[in-house]
Specification:
single chain, 569 residues, alpha/beta, TIM Barrel, Oligo-1,6-glucosidase, domain 2, 3 domains, five-stranded antiparallel beta sheet, globular, binds alpha-D-glucopyranose, binds magnesium ion
Length: 569
């Protein structure tokens, strides 16, 4: 916040007035944004599914933590075949999550607490239950309704083969054949994800108009911005040519080296769409933002998503994937700062979200685990919990000292591990079904989070119901088990966020420090010196007052899997 305590006594100004005063300051350049996954945050009606009134009732915990903004994953009308990323009505709330009035109440509460509110927008595909798709099915081949989506005739003698060889991100073919209204086998439609998620044809101006209206609807309701789902996928290469991805590319299509761009990811045509959205956002008062979920590599290409007339931010998945290794962490920090600043955008940093193995487990894995594969009881190289947690705390302490904007995923501030031992029959991720259990998918990071050690469902609700079963050893992770305990992960995050604000780390810079050895990430950001030891050999601590340490330090050395912040002269 730019207000200076010497001119405005902090106690006389409410958080919402601070937000108002802050308009125009580009808050997002340095913001810490907390991802709430509505299904699993807090459940007000005890049906086992989190909901908007639940979020509102627990929101003050996030203000206490010290974040600047909340990003809400989808809460729109949806059959929930992909946990809400299959939207059947973009301008309404699913009854499982509440009503539009509940949304307004959440918005009001966030404002009162000084929190910005970003919502998810899912433009690559709708649910197959959406009226637009149902009308397309009914209207028949060649109709304007079919032109909203990517319907094509099949190949083979009778159209019995799919139009091309594309595979779904969730496994299996990316095409499904429909039965026409007269009962005959018909056209095929494209779905890069589940068969219940037909892709729109974004070359069609009608689709573009609908989404501008959807943006206006939520902007008028006061949202501070949109996290744009699959922002690398909306335009497909003309002709929809066959494509076989290299074996080592992650499920979201990583490894997009020059010349090997898949015909469904990162096509140039996406940018004019974002320019039109940016132009719309710019007509609204306040600092409203667009943040791209774009799995695009290398980073230099991702910079195109955040040029001055496009989105404000893009998730830095290269950082998320850099692992617990000093050389690769340093490399990606350097590349990120350089690439994003070359287009005038802040870098972002992220370690966990609802699609990846929680970093308290991921950083302890001893076998490769491609994004989207998830982990379960039969996965190779399962993590040691203590090692994973130590690394997660150390990695988070690096991330929160970096200039730019950081994203947190609910539960990481509790040091929550992945729920690995979910029973097969409890799993719900379409990835699990579409790969016949070969990939566990993402349920393990989506389990409802613990609030109170001794309450039913750990305080997620009062009924004890939970849409995914909560492990029975989660009491120590509950927020009330950690509150006020300086050694806890919760208090570590709270301290890191407070120091980050106090020393303006979000708007600072990285000055690398030499001499600590290959396994150490060592840098200064303003007066704060950060040392992270990713190796096993203890390293000498820098001179200065200790501000924060992810382990209890006894003596002048920093052990492995630990980070310290020191105030330098
Ligand atoms: C994004 C979402 C993911 C969803 C997919 C399809 O990657 O983050 O959860 O399954 O898009 O919408
Ligand atoms: Mg509920």
């Amino acid at each position: 916040m730019p207000l200076d305590e010497s001119t405005v006594p902090a106690s006389d100004i409410s958080p919402s007035e601070l937000i108002a005063a802050d308009t125009g300051s580009e808050w997002w350049r340095t913001a810490v944004i907390y991802q709430v996954y509505p299904r699993s945050f807090a459940d007000s009606d005890g049906d086992g599914m989190g909901d908007l009134p639940g979020i509102t009732s627990r929101l003050s915990a996030l203000a206490d933590l010290g974040v600047d903004a909340v990003w809400l994953s989808p809460f729109y009308t949806s059959p929930q075949r992909d946990a809400g990323y299959d939207v059947a009505d973009y301008c309404d709330v699913d009854p499982r999550f509440g009503t539009l009035a509940d949304f307004d109440a959440l918005r009001a509460k966030a404002t009162e607490l000084g929190l910005r509110l970003v919502v998810d927008l899912v433009p690559n595909h709708s649910s197959s239950d959406h009226r637009w798709f149902q009308e397309a099915l009914a209207a028949g081949p060649g109709s304007t309704e079919r032109a909203r989506y990517l319907f094509r005739d099949g190949t083979g003698a009778d159209g019995e083969l799919p139009p091309n060889n594309w595979q779904s991100v969730f496994g299996g073919e990316a095409w499904t054949r429909i039965t026409e209204a007269d009962g005959t086998p018909g056209q095929w439609y494209l779905h890069l994800f589940d068969s219940s998620q037909p892709d729109f044809d974004w070359q069609n101006p009608w689709v573009r108009e609908q989404f501008l209206d959807i943006l206006r609807f939520w902007l008028d309701r006061g949202v501070d911005g949109f996290r744009v789902d699959v922002a690398h996928g909306m335009i497909k290469k003309p002709g929809l040519p066959d494509y076989t991805p290299p074996a080592d590319s992650g499920s979201m299509g990583g490894g997009l080296e020059e010349g090997a761009t898949p015909p469904y990811w990162a096509q140039d045509g996406v940018h004019e769409i974002y320019r039109s959205w940016r132009a719309l956002l710019d007509t609204y008062a306040g600092d409203r933002i667009l943040v791209a979920e774009a799995w695009v590599e290398p980073l230099s290409k991702l910079a195109n998503w955040v040029r001055p007339d496009e989105m404000h931010q893009a998730f830095n998945f290269t950082y998320l994937e850099s692992g617990w290794s000093a050389p690769s962490i340093k490399r990606v920090i350097d590349a990120s700062l350089e690439v994003f600043s070359s287009v005038g955008a802040p870098s972002t940093w992220v370690l966990s979200n609802h699609d990846v193995v929680r970093h308290a487990s991921r950083l302890g894995l001893t076998a490769d685990n491609p994004q989207g594969a998830g982990i379960g009881p039969r996965s190779p190289g399962l993590p040691d919990r203590a090692v994973g947690l130590a690394r997660a705390r150390a990695a988070s302490a690096v991330m929160l000292a970096l200039p730019g904007s950081a994203y947190l995923y609910q539960g990481e501030e509790l040091g929550l591990p992945e729920a690995i031992d979910l029973p097969d029959e409890a799993r719900q991720d379409p990835t699990w079904f579409r790969t016949n259990g070969e990939r566990y998918g993402r349920d393990g990071c989506r389990v409802p989070i613990p609030w109170e050690a001794a309450s039913p469902a750990y305080g997620f609700n009062t009924s004890g119901e939970s849409w995914l079963p909560q492990p029975d050893d989660w009491a120590p992770y509950a927020r009330d088990s950690q509150t006020g305990k300086p050694a806890s992960t919760l208090e570590l995050y709270r301290l890191a966020l407070a120091l980050r604000a106090e020393f303006d780390l979000g708007s600072g810079s990285v000055e690398w420090l030499d001499g600590y050895g290959a396994d150490v990430v060592a840098f200064r950001n303003g007066v704060v010196t950060v040392i992270a030891n990713t190796g096993t050999v203890p390293v000498e601590l820098p001179i200065g007052d200790e501000l924060l340490a992810t382990v209890e330090l006894d003596g002048p050395a920093l052990p492995g899997d630990a980070t310290v912040w020191v105030r330098s002269a």
